[in-house]
């Protein structure tokens, strides 16, 4: 069985760059901890993927806006997929579930900044998906 994949949820440029809103609280620590978890995951053979929120038109996190990309400081590897979503639950994108099923994994590790929003919704989505 494959090691549980690590999903990095919605840590996008618009949350860190301070262009439209102040940067997320304790951004440097969040980046350092995320990098530590993903480095550990890679070293232990856990697949890593990133989830990106597609905000509505005019939103700083809207597709194609400067705030939309995964924050580069997180160090996403070129072979690590990004799954887009437009609602809280990352499993709303069927490609994510297909990727996890293709790995043969039956568990996931979730990390992100907004545990009461998209991380919680994705946790519920993972449980619903089995």
What does this protein structure show overall?
- This protein is an alpha/beta fold and 130 residues long.
- The chain has a single domain (6-129), classed as Isochorismatase-like (Rossmann fold), CATH 3.40.50.850.
- The chain has 4 helices and 4 strands, in the order βααββαβα.
- It has a 4-stranded parallel beta sheet with strand order 3-2-1-4.
- The mean pLDDT is 95.
- This is Isochorismatase family protein.
- It comes from Phenylobacterium glaciei.
- It holds the Pfam family Isochorismatase.
- Keywords: Hydrolase.
Keywords:
single chain, 130 residues, alpha/beta, Rossmann fold, 4-stranded parallel sheet, 4 helices, 4 strands
**How would you state the average pLDDT, rounded?**
95
CATH superfamily: Isochorismatase-like
Count of individual beta strands: 4
Oligomer: single chain
* Radius of gyration, in angstroms, nearest whole number: 14 Å
Main CATH class: Alpha Beta
Coarse morphology: globular
The residue fraction in helices comes out at 25-40%
